[in-house]
User: What shape does this take?
Amino acid sequence: MIASGWKNPFVASGRWRRANLHTHTTASDGKVSLQERVNEYAQNGYDILAITDHHAVTPLDKLHDPDSMLVLPGAELHPANPYGGSTYHLICLGLTQALDAKRAAHPQEIIDGVNARGGMVYLAHPYWCRHALSDLAPLARHAGVEVYNYNCDCDGRADSTASWDELLNRVGLMPAIANDDCHDAAVARTDTFGAWTWIRAESLTATSVLEALRAGLNYSSCGPEVKGLTVEDHALKNASGSALKTHRIRVTTSPAREVFFVSDVSGGHVQARGGRPLEEAEYIVRQGARYVRIEVVDFDGRKAWVNPVPFTW
Ligand SMILES: [Zn+2]
Ligand SMILES: [Zn+2]
Assistant: This one.
């Protein structure tokens, strides 16, 4: 059955809000000011922008933010890595005062410190960091993984899906987010508006948005819009004719080329046929699967990632 505590983001109360949760300004190595950055995203259909300059929390008090936009304070912090890999990049959201990551005895100290201050932490672009499971698995009490980072495309390392899957398979279930990690101005068209996170939040307030993220009420996208997700009981007949209880997952989406159902056991793949785009896909969950996550690919190769649905047997 579906593991207790799982909430389906596609039927949760509230509405979808589009967010970029990883943003740089001239306060660190970004090329545009905070005000300009906020204006760019407000004018391009975003509801939420998290400011995550390196090492420090950029003050938001002088900002004239457009009414329609929620601007979240935060930082990208870089504690040293005691496990042999490169320095960590931690996206810290809801943080109003930075912690000195360089002085931390261990990266866990930073994660726990951000949590204690009411914030939350995601592991940024692990594939770009060349992080192996041995770098990622020891970290606990973070909120999840940045599955796609548009800026890291410049190194061919934007897509961290494999790192996320390793964590899901070997450590535990956790949500993912996708972000621009923008440094350039929007007019440069290099690292803006290429990846975003849809958050199902009750209201456009920091409390409501962070609460929704903590509950995994979000999905990640570079293009496809996931419109619905249902998980229903389903009975299969085995060879001897007796019924096996499982589940049927159904997803509805904007026109897609492929839908993948990815699991810790064998998954499923549905393809568009006869030139007709997919707008829905179904999958019967294999008995014993701990989770199924869904990946949608459109005709331009752009992906969307739905967080794992957990099962117990
Ligand atoms: Zn980074
Ligand atoms: Zn960054």
